[in-house]
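Chain entry —
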Amino acid sequence: MLNEKKERLFYLDFIRALSVLSIVIFHFNASLGSRSIGVIRIFFDTYANGNLGRIGVSLFFIISGAALMYTYKNDFIIKRYFKKRFSSIYPIFWTAYAIVLLYYFYKYYALNPFSPQVPKWTFALSIIGMDGYLVALIPNYYMIGEWFLGCIILLYICFPFLRIFLVKYPKTLILCTLIVYFTVVQNYVFKIQIDYNILTRLPEFIFGMCFVLFVRKVNIYHFIISSLILIFLFIIKIDIPYMYIITITGISSFFVLAYIGQFISMEKIKKPFIIISKYSFAIFLVHHVIIEQVLERFTGRIITPIETYSLFLINCIILAIISFYLYKFSNHLSTFLKRYFSIAHSPTK
């Protein structure tokens, strides 16, 4: 028997919305710098030990683990799980990829304008969403999704096994995860960038799972301690491997934001965060491409602060429109695929 539909946890929507906004702001500022545009950066995007983008990505890993554990804590059927993951990732990814591919073809007169000598077989990496994750190791047809998409796909594949171990042997799983994490960080030998490596992101993902299973609610002590840690890391530069800082900052930020999110009750305040959260994956997939296209014509120009914020507003409007229709179209595609495969695999009468 299936469980009744679970109550939606607003604090996850709240954190997810802030996460995607922080990543958009960071990449917008990064593009301003790389294109030598303007005289300021918008909002706040860096601190003594890192930047807003890293915090946003860390929070994404945490809420992914938390959301999956909340959904599948008691009722888990592996076939249904993978069908759900497939339908939530690939229709929208393929749709976005196809749109960007055709746009680049129109703009640059080539289907692969940036690396025409890439082996054709590597297009398979784009089909399965691993192109951005492996692009530094294998030149391929990567255009959207960045490394995060491939990493989260790998974590989704691992989740059924992690769930079993967390439910049955939580202490063993946590201890093994920490041993692997510290060993990898202290003796890094992989060619992939350290914060892209699934082994260094496991603690965040598993922390999210543990939070839902064992903590459930943030208290005032969690909030105070986490706030003090964040203040310290934001102000004082410390000389430790930056992967440790990413993990500590992400987990501390989660506690602080989850605590705040618990006290937001007005629907008018909740609604914008819920809407942004709903379209967060679509935003994530295409935001970098849109930012680059919006800023391209301003390369090398000095613009005023108000003009810089106006550019950001233009970027957000375009991003909102494209993400909305991308989400809607991909939902129709997902529904079509479900019906098609359901009919194709149904027994003949």
